[in-house]
Design a protein that fits this description.
6-stranded antiparallel beta sheet, globular, alpha+beta, 8-stranded mixed beta sheet, about 20% strand, 26 strands, Spore Coat Polysaccharide Biosynthesis Protein SpsA, Chain A, about 675 residues, about 30% helix
Amino acid sequence: MSVSTTQDGLVTRLLQRQILPIDKDTDVFALYVDPEEPRLDADRYEIGGNRAAKDLNNAAIRQSTSTGASVRPDQILSRTALRVPHGAKLSFGTYFNAFPASYWRRYTIVENVTLTVRLRGADSSVTVYKSMANGRSQRVDTGSTNGAALDENGVATFSFELSLTPFVDGGWYWYDVVAGDEDAVVESAEWSAQVPAERAEHGTADICITTMNRPDFCAKLIGQLADDEDLRPYLDEVLVMEQGSDPVTESEFFPAAQKTLGERLRVIVQGNLGGSGGYARGQLESVRKGTATYALMMDDDVVCEPEGVIRAITFGDLARRPTIVGGHMFSIYSRSRLHSFGEIIQPWRFWWQTRLDGYSDWDFGARNLRSARWLHKRADVDFNGWFMCLIPRRVLEEIGLSLPLFIKWDDSEYGLRAKAAGFPTVSFPGAAVWHVPWSDKNDGVDWQAYFHQRNRFVAALLHSPYERGGRMVRESLNHQIKHLVSLQYSTAQIRHQALLDVLAGPGQLHADLPGKLGEINALRKQFTDAQLKTDPDAFPPVRREKPPRKGKDGIEIPGRLSLLITAGLAPIRQLRPPRAMAKEYPEAELTAMDASWYRLARYDSAIVSMNDGTSAALYKRDPEKYRELLRKTIEIHQRLHREWPRLAAEYQAALSEVTSPEAWTETFRPWTEGDDESAAGRP
């Protein structure tokens, strides 16, 4: 982003510019430009507080939204220019082109912004709008090419001076363009601000990418970063932590990216230390090098909007204090769907979640930003996922690197740690990647369940404001029994191991990184529910001793009373001997979406598919194993509740040492000994 100096010594700095999709992919048009079309009335349909009502509301809107208006690929003339057909109206009140005024108002030194729009076409006009935190919009100003001064290319330039004062709680600025009797072209639009001279120069970032056996995906991502000429000045170095056996350097897409980035690309080879081990290596290298203002964590399996990286750096440069700037995540499979606008840690349960007045899934292709009231209230967060997250080097130097957690909770714990040290996190609109959504993963019951359980408790011991973690121990006990009545014995077993490792204290966190995954996989594979098969004929046919009562097989969702009765009786039922036929033949075949605990609890055996749709497993009820695991469940949770205060003090005392560069240096030593640190791993 460019800067220019004003007469009074301030500098004018570009904050955000109008952009259009690089590849003209129609699936993402709704994130960049929005045709004016009939919409349901926002006052009538915005329902707060009632989740069921909100879901019904969302479904009704999806069915009712007009699809008559659209934007065609040939209207995109360049990265910044769009043609508007004569007589048409297009809005730039979209995710990537509206200006998130309330975030700039709350977290940065910017007080006023200037919107400059360059418009060509007779009788065309541009109108500026703003919204309030409740989503209501107001017209601010307008300009028309009729009578306006034109340059030699027939382009009129409009400047609008806009204050950020009214945006304490929320709100956006945006502009709409209407074409007259001939086509109009929006050549460009830029949002700029005057800032002190010491904020004139933009920062740079080390992009830290952890990868394992996704060579093509990762190489294409590196190529995206390399090929964007506007982004290039903001890149200090691209650090790729290679932890797999199928290296990114062997991808057919790697040489081109390597040629473009040259010395600014470094591939660092190490063992599989998980996401936290990969990101910590990137953080360590960035801090040691000391030339980049920020280290930006980014997953290897994302599609990036390079402009979002520039915006995150610009926002960080102008923040009131060092601030972690995170991006949002859109679904890589349905590219207009946003997955969570802001994440918090619910303190009593100590569980991550979308803020209570937000949605965890929102399709901008079905309902636009302007009419979605909840998107106009500023979303303040506790953390941002490391699929895209910009961390100032100063923060890394003051509070340390990632916890050695392998995967899960490293990013959320870091956000809480930074917040406690006075460094906020902002999930910043307009900075985003496309990624596999959480809903398409099976990480609640597979090997990842170990890391979910262990790392959540480690994070809670460090940061929970409650003496014994609030509801955590009780909720963990409930979930453990739920897994047992669901015949998920492998999940119950590795969750036990997770808590035993928590009780062992923080001393083994680093030592466990290289080998813990292998141990967990070996442990869970002893159980049939963890033995996945891709061939449907690998399982015996479904047979039952008796048909379902009155032809009902329990596919309906039970009411609250029925759930409570099932919850009380299901643990007792598990003690009964399984039906004879169920020992040889599964009694049912359930899809992942139907495999709820209250359904699984009624079967003695069942074939259950996985969330990703690639495989299935055979669940079999075993009363003896159930008794053994239930006894362990009660004993471990009693011990955890009893020892919580001591454990919390122990983990908190060890935090600075465990996350220190020195501790991580020792963990990385098997892959760095004898290397020239300044050139380690260069391709």
